[in-house]
Every structure is written in C-alpha cells, then in structure tokens.
Amino acid sequence: MVSITEILKEKSIDYWDFADSKLFGIHKISSYPATMVPDMQKELIKMVTEEDKSVKNILDPFHGSGVTLVEGTGLGLDPIGFDINPLANLMTLVKLQGVNKKIVESSNRRIMRKVLEDDINFVVHDFYNIEKWFRTDIIESLSKIKHIIQQEKYKYIRQYYWVCLINVIKKYSNTRSSTFKLHIKKEEDINQLKNDVFKDFFQNISTSYKYLPDYSRHKKVLLSVGDTRELLSKTEQNSIDLICTSPPYGDNGTTVTYGQYSMLPLYWINKKDLTKFDDSLLENYSSIDSASLGGPKSIPSKVHYTSDRLINYLDSISLSKHRKVINFVNDYLDAFDKMHNVLKPGKFMIVTLGNRRVDNEILPLTEITKDFLLEKGFSIEAELSRNIPVKRMPRKVSRVNNKAVSSMNTEYVLILKK
Questions:
Q1: Mean of the per-residue pLDDT values for the chain?
Q2: Which residue of 188, 242, 306, 361 has the smallest Cβ count within 10 Å?
Q3: Which SS3 state, helix, strand or coil, does residue 195 take?
Q4: DSSP character for 222?
Q5: What's this model's pTM, rounded to 2 decimal places?
C-alpha cells in the first residue's frame, strides 16, 4: 500500500497548481462562481482511497456546483452533499443523478418543436422587479420555455432542462457579467443584446446531456439544502468515511456572493423541481448570502473561539470589522466541530482553504483552522499550497480607503486524519 506521504514526495512543487486544467464535459454544463479544479479534487480523493481501501462514502458539506462529489462518485464513492444554495443543489443533483439519454433526445425534439410553434398559450412569468432585470421580449421568450419545461412528464428531465436554462437566464439578464453581484448593465448594452434565447437553449439541451451519467431510480444520491451545521447535526455520528470540501473563506456578503449570483435563475425555476428548502432563502436578492456562515441571518453559533492568533489579527483591523470577523470564524469553526462528529475515527478530511483580506490585512484562516482541528484531535498528514490560475474569483473583492483590494491568489490544502 502506497502512503499519502510517499505519493506527495513524487510530485513537483508546482504540481498542485494545475495551471493547464480547464473545466470540461460535465463540469461545464452550467457556470458557477469559484468552482474547484476537477483534476485536483480527483487526485486528492484518489490518494486517500488508495491508502484507505475501506472508504465507501464521501461528504462535501459545502458542495457548490458539485465538482468534488462528481469526482468522488467517479471513483466509486457514494455522494453526500450539503449547500445552503438551492441552485447549487440543483446543478449538483443533475450531474449526479444523470438522465436517460433516449428519453432526453425524444423530449428535446418535442421541446424544440413546441417552442417554435406560434399558437402556444402560456402565462408570462412575473416576479418583483422582473422588468428591471430582463427586457420585455426576453421575459416572453423565457416564459415560453418555462411553460413547456413544466409540461415534461419526468421530474429528473425537467431538472435537467432547468439547469440548461441557467446560463441562458444569466446571459440574457440585464446584470453585468463582470461581477457576481446584481448590477445593471449600461442601457446601450441592454438594448444591443440580440435575442437568441431559443437558439442558446436548444444548443444547451442538445449537448449537455451527453456528459451526464445514465439515470437510475436506484442510484444513491443524498443532497440537502440548508445551513450545513444544522444538516451535520442531523447526520449520524461516525458515519462518514471521507470529508472533502472547500468551505467559504469569509461571509458571502464580502467575499463571493453566491446567493446574488443565483437569485435570478431561482426566480425562474419552478420550486417543485427544487430540493425542499426554507422559503426565507428567496425573500430577497441577498437572502442566501445573509443566511450563510457569518451572515446577519445565519443560525446562532455554538462555538465561541478565541486564540492569541485571532486576537492579534483583530488588533490589526478596525474595531468596526471585529464583529463580522468573529461571527464568521465562530460559524465556520462550528461547522468543523460538527464535521469532526460525523467523520469516522481513523478517517481522512481534505480541506482546501484560502486566506482573505479584511481592512487589507490577511485573515490567517488556514492557521486558525489547523489550530482548531489539532485541538479536536486531528493529525495533519499533509499540507500543500497552490497558486490559483483558473478558479473563477472576482479580481477585486472589496475596497479599503476607496481602493480596490485584490482577491487571494493562493490556496492551501490540508489532509487531516481523525
């Protein structure tokens, strides 16, 4: 049996950058902010499963677009995933459950024929401020597609079509593509956009299914929407063989606004085709981000962490930022406390981390995480660092003294054992 240490010795210092790696196949079906690198995740999971042949399941408690769970499933593991974002959940569900390709091909022909018919009666979709975010003709085109998707018999096929519609909704919205936050484009750019909604949707549904696995009603896919701390509390203790995840590096409101990025597509998708979630997550454009770790509406943390490292950091930033940092760190470590509970003794956790800036001072999140997990009894089997050449992050994430602050360009990977 080859150990993780021996495998790592064979890798060059820049191996983990995966500088030439690109999203491909199944991972390109729908775009999402700050996705993981599939090649890296596959390699990391493979290292652990080669050392420990008894690993049967994999948990990602912040699964995002599902890269880690897709790669874990490809290596024969049963996927378990949590995310507070219903859109991320839908994308991951479709990638894992797959489709019946013959049924999709038949449904595609029906949908394309129906969409092009002139005498289809449909209700024009509406939600608060819809005309701010979409041109009138775009609303009509998307509404027609929505109506026809809802006529599809099989739920998993409807879910596939919703995922294919996400990129179309994003492309034809009035929001700028240069940021994950909702900001209106210039009026001239909105007016110049050519309405190719039908053409783009047809292209997506005709190609994306080819990358998906075959659908089976007996396939074991366990995904849930909600605060990962609550979901971990409901998970059986010592039941998980491998945790592999990249948790948020800060509260969503000031790092990556996954919720704002996802809200417009969520307002178009029929809720009955989404995994059950709390309605409050769709109350406004910031609801998901506010309910995420460190957000003003996140569930109360059961961890109240303090250390010299954290105190020294807080002393370096303005007093007005203390509460935001403390709230996030407590929520974040609360999640790790619960991850420790569900992981089996002797099993591995793989965590990809980054250190963000607050007041232009680097929050030592990686070191805080290590300190906390060592106190919980984990051992650090390996520690890697990598440059971030391809991860889709905003180039500038906040402003200090009216100057934009660059986002992080280095990530750290910890391989820990309970």
A1: 90
A2: 188
A3: coil
A4: E
A5: 0.91
